[in-house]
Amino acid sequence: MPELPEVETVRRGLEPAMVGKRIAVADVRRPNLRWPFPEGMADRLTGARIERLRRRSKYILADLDTGETLLIHLGMSGRMLIAPPRNNGAKEAARDMLGDFHHLHPAPEKHDHVVLDMADGTRITFNDARRFGAMDLYATEIGETHKLLALLGPEPLGNSFDESYFKAALKGKNTPIKSALLDQRIVSGLGNIYVCEALWRTGISPLRKAGDLSGKRIASLVPAIRQVLSEAIESGGSSLKDYRQTDGELGYFQHSFAVYGREGAPCKTPNCAGDIKRVVQSGRSSFYCNTCQR
Ligand code: ZN
């Protein structure tokens, strides 16, 4: 499942293709993904200009000049793919003016559920084989009161996620630190991969009770989380199953994993003779070294 770095990579890829550009034709090719699409979505998108492309947690938010925001969630297997027009000749441009985009791109494929033909001929396709993704349209002015955004905790790369916030948020928590970090109300955008990696970097066991961690150890998690996310964004995210960047390329942070998916392999901590263990916590695998993570 795409986590914050993958979603941010997709957002950055989409930015030059979408911001300041007008959607000439929106083609919504099925009634729903995880949830039904909002009513009249194709009509509400057609003709709209995208003013800003933001990210909140694992959501991409496109602010439109119509006063609405398009919310995009990639779910498990969703991809946003950008295809430049096949041909930019003068004759083609003349046809583009008439809103005929079909000759510029191959026909949509089976899992291409939403197709946005931008006025410059670029095609942006939301492809989602497993259909856990989602799109919604809402009035931009309601801001973070949208039901999917209202309960989200601070952004881990933002200024409000700091030592004092994090200490207060974990105080008295009886859950393992692993579960607390996956709780989107405490900090938003983290998933299994980056939580495992951040815990390894700080030498904290995923089994350790959140409320029992010393202030110093909690404080050490803040830069570790920021660092692992930033490095992953630099690498274009991690491609495990379905995730692709907007140009169809894989991310490559999976080659830098210290613990995730490395059960039985030697620990990468200098001078640690341990190997990586896997335990299941709340139905999710935690990978860690029980020699240097305490
Ligand atoms: Zn170790």
Structure keywords:
four-stranded antiparallel beta sheet; 2 domains; 294 residues; N-terminal domain of MutM-like DNA repair proteins; Helicase, Ruva Protein, domain 3; single chain; alpha+beta; binds zinc ion; 25% helix
Describe this structure in words.
- By secondary structure, the chain is of the alpha+beta class.
- The chain folds into two domains: 4-145, MutM-like, N-terminal (N-terminal domain of MutM-like DNA repair proteins, Alpha-Beta Barrel); 163-289, Helicase, Ruva Protein, domain 3 (Orthogonal Bundle).
- Helices cover 25% and strands 21% of the residues.
- It has a four-stranded antiparallel sheet.
- Strand 6 and strand 7 form a beta hairpin.
- The model has no long low-confidence stretch (mean pLDDT 94).
- The protein binds zinc ion.
Quote the average pLDDT.
94
Beta content comes to 15-25%
Strand pairing plus helix content: what structural class? alpha+beta
N-to-C series of helices and strands: HEHEEEEHEEEHHHHEE
The figure for the number of domains is 2
Question: Strand order within the widest sheet?
Answer: 1-6-7-5
Query: Quick one: CATH superfamily of the largest domain?
Result: MutM-like, N-terminal
Oligomerization: single chain
Q: Which regions have little confidence, pLDDT < 50, spanning 5+ residues?
A: none
The small-molecule ligands in this entry are: zinc ion
Work out the radius of gyration: 21 Å
